[in-house]
Amino acid sequence: MKRLKNLFRNETVFCVSFVLAVLSSFVVWPDAGYLAYPDYRTLALLFCLMILVAGLQSLGIFSMLGHVLLTKVHSIRGLSLVMILLCFFSSMVITNDVSLITFVPFTLLIFRMGGQTRRVLKLVVLETIAANLGSMATPIGNPQNLYLYSVSGLTTAEFAWATLPYAGLSLLLLAAALFTERDEPLFGVTVKEPAENTASSLLRPAAPFFALMALCLLVVFRVLPYQPVLLCVMAAVLLLNRRLYLSVDYFLLLTFLCFFVFIGNMKRVPALNDLLLSVVQGRELLTGILASQVISNVPAAILLSGFASDFSALLTGVNLGGLGTLIASLASLISFKFFSREYPDQKGAFLKEFTVWNAAFLAVLAAAAGLLMKF
User: Fold this and answer.
1) Residue 36 has what DSSP assignment?
2) Eight-state DSSP code of residue 283
3) In which region does residue 282 sit, left (phi positive, over 0), alpha (psi from -120 to 50) or beta (all else)?
4) Average pLDDT value for residue range 300-309
5) In the chain, what's the furthest Cα-to-Cα distance?
6) How many Cβ atoms sit within 10 Å of the Cβ of residue 296?
7) DSSP assignment of 2-33
8) Where are the domains of the chain?
9) How many helices (H) does the chain have, and how many strands (E)?
């Protein structure tokens, strides 16, 4: 019983998706049609990208990048700007959650060294927003982008129109939020690049991971089929570092699989299918934003995709829907956990600051989306 409670607490979204899949199987009994439910291409790409990013992270690539950039700054504002830009742009390649796992602890350490703990709360919140919004700019930036780009048939131009205007606007908003505060000199902090993690020493071990990542990108953009690339990645990781198999978020893959089963079953019930179509179609932006606030944006993307007709609007909706509540994007929980572990007495302050800034960004970006979609 204790293990079940821990599982539900740590993997709530998976548990909910599993229950929905099981319940729906009593409505539509398992048959050969179930095999057509999953999008195997998305599952394969998610697995490959997660294990390759874990490989690069294990080499210290991203931490080294942060150290190098931080040697160039001499003020609190400069430090904050570098950390926000790191989260924003790195999330486009290594996903929003990995970006936060890498750079939020780094931020907490640097600010504690500089005795600037009073300003770190706002910065961690802005870093979280930066990672969530920066990740929308590429098909591999987050799981919902990868999934929707895979199943929707959107062209690269259509994907860009649904994401890049809001990523660009969010970068301006982040800069504005940062420059509202008074700048101060950065005293008492000396950041040096670790001698053992120089760029030259990491290039050779990282090269195979970058090459495999390039193959995955060719699959994302529909140049290569996913099957041989999946086999290539699995074989290469066995040779390079088989421990990386333990770094994969298998619960995320199982969550996708459970939602595929649930949606597939719902579409085979005419009354439910018609009801969901009437609710979602024509309201993809709104339903994407609202559903994300309750079940987070990845499950919202999977659930609504089965009943949407305008995938561009849905893509925008679930990406902007990552703003708002703490669970709107599960990556935000990473920042909350790191911050509350460092400052356990400031959990309430974090939630207040997080909600205010997320609501402000969501209001501006949702309004912009409403205007742009009229053209």
Assistant:
1) G
2) -
3) left
4) 89
5) 66
6) 25
7) HHHHHHHHHSHHHHHHHHHHHHHHHHS---GG
8) 38-181+217-372
9) 18, 0
